[in-house]
Specification:
Layout: E1 4-9, H1 14-30, E2 34-40, H2 50-60, E3 64-68, H3 82-105, E4 109-115, H4 123-128, E5 133-137, H5 141-156, E6 167-168, E7 176-177, H6 191-205, E8 208-211, H7 219-226, E9 239-241, H8 257-262, E10 270-274, H9 283-296, E11 299-304, H10 324-327, H11 332-335, E12 340-344, H12 349-353, E13 358-363, H13 367-376, E14 380-382, H14 389-400, E15 403-405, H15 416-428, H16 430-450, H17 455-468
Parallel strand pairs: 1-2, 1-4, 2-3, 4-5, 5-8, 8-9, 10-11, 10-13, 11-12, 13-14, 14-15
Antiparallel strand pairs: 6-7
Helix pairs in contact: 5-6, 5-7, 9-15, 13-16, 15-16
Length: 470
């Protein structure tokens, strides 16, 4: 038999792919004789700049091999809903995944298959081949508590989250209101909800779960998972807290417009506003943000993505191309030219967060962005948009205490007054001061966790040892 191998199977979206690639790098760093293969499945939805990213990783990390899975034919009437596609494509890929794993097994020993939760359909394939199967939960311990506990809530209630007005006590996390649960969990009759329940059940039956966090960031959630409180009616598999796994900021052009502008700003004076690869806001909201930023009198670096078309306001996939002057209030760019920089669609986020001039981060609470802020020691304004981000806000504000929550209306609009008040408080206020101190403490804990003898290093060594002992 040839080499030992670990197969990673991420969801193709850039946020999930980046975390899985960082896991692959970590595996090879800890055990150079383990070859790492990452399955890439075609996706009929926008995945971010994954092609360019994969080429860069392949060029700089030859120890990681990307294996492009053949395209499975979806039925012509298959749902176009993003979540249905994210769970459904792996189902149709299963025959291809089965044949690929069998082929790999003829030349190598597959020590483990590591699944993204969206790749859950492959659980039945890898386990049927008697391959130890793990899940890599790309979010944190608090989110994992809620994910695993979803099965218990499902069994003990009969109504959908959308039909109740309740606060749920989930082990390890602050109380979560039913309206703050992810939209995709809101209706128990939908296919996507049932897929999440099935995934939670399989995770509990897996060989182990990895979470992209560290013990010192989410101590209470870590304790609840280790004590088995989130799967009260059965055993909890080993959970390994191996983060923070984030992409580095090494390959950014120092002549980048954002970095050059930041070089001329005072230390810790700039608020950075960025809402991830899918964070698209309506024109009305962008105008409110502009007014609030101007009134706050804070320096700012703002990434503005194209708003959706006016007649498709619920879309988060981008919209028609408009000039900034058409999107933002009249004269805004000219009036704020001495204090702010507005860029279109993309900016080198990790490099910006690690810049000395940045002192605050208005974020959608996506977990990759949260970890990047923690590692950089930049406090947050929590402004959730979709997915599990409202739950993340509760963890960040109430439990971890590294963020302030911006006030949102019932239709999730953030007014100029709300943004002005929260940004000024984060940068200058007493409550903001406590958050600024707390994030610096977490920065030191993150650094310690990744060092020799640190919690994440020790946890990952245990995981690798369990594979190499097989």
């Amino acid at each position: 038999m040839g080499s030992d191998m670990v197969v990673l199977y991420p969801s193709p979206g850039i946020g999930h792919l980046v975390s899985m690639v960082e896991l692959g790098k970590l595996i090879h760093t800890h055990h150079t004789s383990l070859s790492v293969v990452i399955f890439i499945s075609p996706a009929p939805f926008e995945t971010g700049s994954t092609d360019k990213y994969i080429k860069t990783v392949s060029a700089t990390n030859p120890s990681i091999t990307f294996h492009q899975l053949a395209t499975a034919d979806l039925p012509p009437d298959f749902s176009s809903d993003f979540i249905d596609l994210a769970f459904g494509i792996p189902e149709f890929n299963n025959p291809i995944v089965h044949d690929t794993l069998v082929k790999f097994s003829e030349k190598s020993t597959i020590k483990a298959v590591v699944l993204d939760f969206f790749s859950n359909a492959a659980f039945q394939i890898s386990t049927s081949l008697n391959i130890p199967t793990y899940y890599f939960y790309t979010s944190g311990a608090s989110g994992l508590c809620a994910f695993l506990y979803l099965s218990t809530i499902h069994k003990t209630t009969s109504k959908s989250f959308k039909d109740v007005n309740e606060i749920f006590d989930i082990p390890g996390v602050p109380p979560i209101h039913s309206s703050h649960m992810p939209i995709v969990w809101s209706d128990r009759e939908t296919n996507s909800y049932k897929k999440f329940i099935d995934t939670a059940d399989n995770m509990a039956k897996s060989s182990g779960i990895m979470a992209n966090t560290f013990v010192g960031l989410e101590g209470r959630a870590v304790g609840a998972l280790r004590d088995g409180k989130c799967v009260p009616d059965g055993p909890t598999p080993p959970v390994y807290f191996i983060g923070p796994l984030i992409a580095g900021s090494n390959h950014v052009d120092p002549e980048n417009e954002c970095l050059k502008w930041l070089n001329s700003q005072p230390s810790k004076s700039v608020v950075f506003l960025c809402f991830g690869s899918q964070g698209v806001l309506k024109t009305e909201q962008l105008k409110e943000m502009a007014i609030g930023l101007e009134r706050s009198e804070q320096r700012f670096l703002w990434v503005v993505r194209d708003p959706p078309p006016e007649d498709e306001n619920e879309s988060i996939s981008g919209g028609k191309k408009l000039g900034l002057d058409a999107i933002l209030p009249d004269g805004f760019l000219a009036r704020t030219a001495d204090k702010g920089l507005v860029v279109r669609n993309w900016a080198p986020q990790p490099a910006i967060l690690n810049h000395e001039s940045v002192g605050g981060f208005v974020s959608h609470c996506g977990w990759n962005s949260v970890l990047e802020a923690v590692v950089a020691g930049v406090p947050l304004v929590a402004w959730p948009l979709y997915a599990e981000q409202k739950m993340n806000r509760a963890y960040l504000v109430e439990e971890i205490k590294v963020a302030l929550a911006v006030n949102m209306s019932t239709d999730d609009l953030v007014t100029a007054e709300s943004l002005e008040k929260t940004v000024r408080e984060l940068m200058q206020g007493e409550e903001g001061g406590a958050v600024r101190e707390r994030i610096l403490e977490m920065k030191e804990r993150a650094k310690a966790a990744a060092e020799d003898g640190g919690s994440s290093k020790v946890e990952f060594s245990k995981l690798i040892q369990s594979w190499t002992d097989l």
